[in-house]
Amino acid sequence: QLQLQESGPGLVKPSETLSLTCTVSGGSISSSSYYGGWIRQPPGKGLEWIGSIYYSGYTYYNPSLKSRVTISVDTSKNQFSLKLSSVTAADTALYYCARQSSIQKGGWFDPWGQGTPVTVSS
Amino acid sequence: QSALTQPASVSGSPGQSITISCTGTKNDIGSYNLVSWYQHHPGKAPKLMIYEVNTRPSGVSNRFSGSKSGNTASLTISGLQAEDEADYYCCSYADGTTLVYVFGTGTKVTVL
């Protein structure tokens, strides 16, 4: 059964770069029909899609975050990673990674990791 | 892209049916049958309940159903049960120039 697990620092200083990794187990990240996606949920707010990556390295990002986001993949480690630069308190959130199907298969997210909380504070 | 609009809360008694709406625009829900719904119990991973407007993944109860009309998608939960109490989010593919996904504002379902 495919499982995803987020990891990374829980506290990041303002103006610095947030870095998270999603480790995939129970299956290969190099699947022709799936992407790896990042989604976040600020405290008391709804979900926000951050961006997604195909195992070949093709990425697409939320236009509102595009200038600060980089998503990469390491197929040898079965991982994909998120970097968000110049963070502010508004980036404080619970960050999730999820497998995402291709548009041809519906573009849905499943399964999801448990989420990892990130606080931006000095 | 703006978030899709959902009611903040919906409630119902056990056994009843409830419907959660998800309103977007012609650029997202109105143009694509790529709407999915997620159930989220706080502290747990969100769970896919519906994809491609009305398709249930294997293992999801047939009490959950989806539909779409114009720019609005809907999730109906029939035979409401206590374990259905959770937050629900819709999500849609949006636009055609770049690949973009937008989530709804979320709906808290309360079982009375």
How would you describe the overall organization of this protein?
The complex is a heterodimer of chains A (122) and B (112). Helix content of chain A is 0%, strand content 52%. In chain A, strands 2, 4, 5, 6, 9, 10 and 11 form a seven-stranded mixed β-sheet that branches. A four-stranded antiparallel β-sheet of chain A has the order 1-3-8-7, with no helix packed on it. Chain A is an all-beta fold and 122 residues long. With 112 residues, chain B is mainly β. Chain B is built from no helices and nine strands. Chain B has strands at residues 9-12, 18-23, 35-40, 47-50, 64-69, 72-77, 86-94, 100-103, 107-111. In chain B, strands 1, 3, 4, 7, 8 and 9 form a six-stranded mixed β-sheet that branches. Chain B has a three-stranded antiparallel β-sheet with strand order 2-6-5, with no helix packed on it. In chain B, a hairpin with a 6-residue loop joins strand 3 and strand 4 (47-50). Chain B is globular. Chain B starts with 8 loop residues before the first strand and ends with a strand. In chain B, 36% of the residues are buried. The mean pLDDT of chain B is 95.
What characteristics describe this protein?
heterodimer; A: 122 residues; mainly beta; 7-stranded mixed β-sheet; 11 strands; B: 112 residues; 3-stranded antiparallel β-sheet; 0% helix; 45% strand
Task: Give a summary of the structure in a few sentences.
The complex is a heterodimer of chains A (122) and B (112). Chain A is mainly β and 122 residues long.
Q: Tally the beta strands of chain A.
A: 11
Order of helices and strands of chain A: EEEEEEEEEEE
Question: Strand pairing plus helix content of chain B: what structural class?
Answer: mainly beta
Radius of gyration of chain A: 14 Å
Shape call of chain A: globular
Order of helical and strand elements of chain B: EEEEEEEEE
Helix percent of chain A reads under 10%
Count of helix runs of chain B: 0
Question: How many DSSP-defined strands of chain B?
Answer: 9
